[in-house]
Amino acid sequence: MLPLRSISLIPIRCRVRFEKFNLASAIGEELRRNRVKIKNGDILVVSSKFAAVSEGRFVELSCVRPTMRAKKIARQYKMLPSMVQIVLNESESLLGGIPGFLLALNAGVLAPNAGIDLSNAPEGWAILYPKSPEHSAQKLRKNMLLQISREKEGRIDKLGVILSDSRVTPTRLGTIGVAIASAGIRPTIDIRGRKDLFENALKVTLAALADQMATAAEICMGEAKESIPVVLIRGVSQAFVTPKTKFEKLMTISPEKCLIISGLKNGNKQ
């Protein structure tokens, strides 16, 4: 059994940026401005949109040329054809939609409009996901460790990074957090085989630790003009228990194995 510990959420208020920039350098600068130092075992939760902007992953809608398919889908779901085209370009697959939104898979995450956002961007612009979220998370962790080493801020060998986004869940009102990528931590904890309160062995349960931390960080980040795209989480020691497999890959499952998607498909056959 893991020891009970308190967990701290430290919001990092950042200056607004809407151009390419060095993400690790910017976060280091904002940590100093907020008078926060990274400690061993800390986890940086970074808004995927903040990371995407740093990579120049934003598009002006007026520059997008929609295809006939995009125009047809736009009429069906009452959307801008240019926005539909961006969703088609960025998503792995479309599952359907409602007026104003397409339900799509992007980076293994089921999200409205494939996670592409018009909010917190200048009018007429859309922010995408990072091109390769997992690579972005790994790169940020590596660069943060190099930066800490250069600045001689103490020995850090345990540092986690999570790129987060907000999402809706079926039948629930409002948004929660979701981790679209992680580095340096185990994003899920397999508790199959452990006993419950009545000594029954758990058979299917895995704890989505990275998603839980993304949701916790959302409390600080907010959805409007809070300007807090980075949250430092302290005290989640179980995130650093290294399993035998490469744990950055243990975040998603195929749609065929997803309870909700498979369940809805099977329901249509009744």
Which SSEs are present, and which pair or pack?
Layout: E1 8-12, H1 23-33, E2 42-47, H2 48-54, E3 58-60, H3 68-77, H4 81-90, E4 93-98, E5 101-106, E6 109-112, E7 125-127, H5 133-150, E8 159-168, E9 175-183, E10 189-190, E11 206-207, H6 209-221, E12 230-234, H7 259-267
Parallel strand pairs: 2-8
Antiparallel strand pairs: 1-12, 2-12, 3-7, 4-5, 5-6, 8-9, 10-11
Helix pairs in contact: 1-5, 3-4
Write down the Rg.
Answer: 20 Å
Assembly of the depicted chains:
single chain
- Beta percentage is 15-25%
Structural domain tally:
2
Order of helices and strands: EHEHEHHEEEEHEEEEHEH
DSSP, total strands = 12
Q: What distance separates the N and C termini?
A: 43 Å
Which fold name is given in CATH as the topology of the largest domain?
60s Ribosomal Protein L30, Chain: A
General form: globular
**Main pleated sheet:** 5 strands, mixed
Which structural class best describes the helix and strand composition? Answer: alpha+beta
